[in-house]
């Protein structure tokens, strides 16, 4: 990548440290001896963590690049230019529709511009009202936007399942991921961490129907198993939404077998194959299955990606949607608080009540008895 000349110039200025006033330091060298000046320079360089300096540096490059494109001056900067720059950055969105920069990142961008001005002995443009008010406006706007993710209800879940690719390993993996996340009321990090050694195929002693037992939270830091939890996933009544069938399908794909979707359940009599490693490994765009587990973030992105394909607003869906969807759909199905709390491992009834209110705002509500 070749950078425009003014950007290159700005880069050279900040290559050592964005935070040191080089001219002032030269003045120190004139008045004191080399050893004294070097001592001071060393401590000044250590004043900021390397991460901060690195972040400031890339923030400064971005700012200088924007100024170059807009025909504005980066140093010294006009406060109004800085305010417009920050507002444009605040409006920048990622492909999934979520903001590209959080409020704290925008504040850091502003701090970087301020720091480089200070290092050059210039007054900071970010202290002006227009910049401060812009940042305050961004913070308030972000705060008022609902952060809670929309629950994936059963019909949404089926819509997402329908958007899976027609072939390739992601088809089987993603069916299992969506079904386990929904039926298990799992958090995205819990989903991502499941290993094959955590999954047992068992039988319901009353109905003799197959079910999946999934052990959760077997993290590397918790070898004692003290905080271990387990969820049980019964067989689904329909083949496309049967977690046990989805598990059998995915085990087949990982074992190199062709996926056969006949529409008939295959979970009866299915015996788990012995496998190691993550249940949800990364799958690259060419259909190559990796050895590493998907990250919690990748789980959230997967839900968003299917939401887009299903014509839904991805900003409203995320990793928490499957867990929230479980509680809401269960409440719609008439489950009690206690039942919902058990599978979801919720300990605070208030959390569950929130989902139930979302599910059916009029149920158990005195407003229906007002005689209006
Ligand atoms: Zn089945």
Automatic annotation (TrEMBL):
Entry GO MF terms: DNA binding
Keywords from the named record: DNA recombination, DNA-binding
Pfam families: Phage_integrase
GO biological process, one term: DNA recombination
Keyword match Cell membrane: no
Domain Core-binding (CB): 23-121
InterPro entries hit by this protein: CB (IPR044068), DNA_brk_join_enz (IPR011010), Integrase-like_cat_sf (IPR013762), Integrase_catalytic (IPR002104), Integrase_recombinase_N (IPR010998), Phage_Integrase-like_Recomb (IPR052925)
Boundaries of every Tyr recombinase domain copy: 147-369
Protein name listed in UniProt: Site-specific recombinase XerD
Organism of provenance: Lentzea albidocapillata
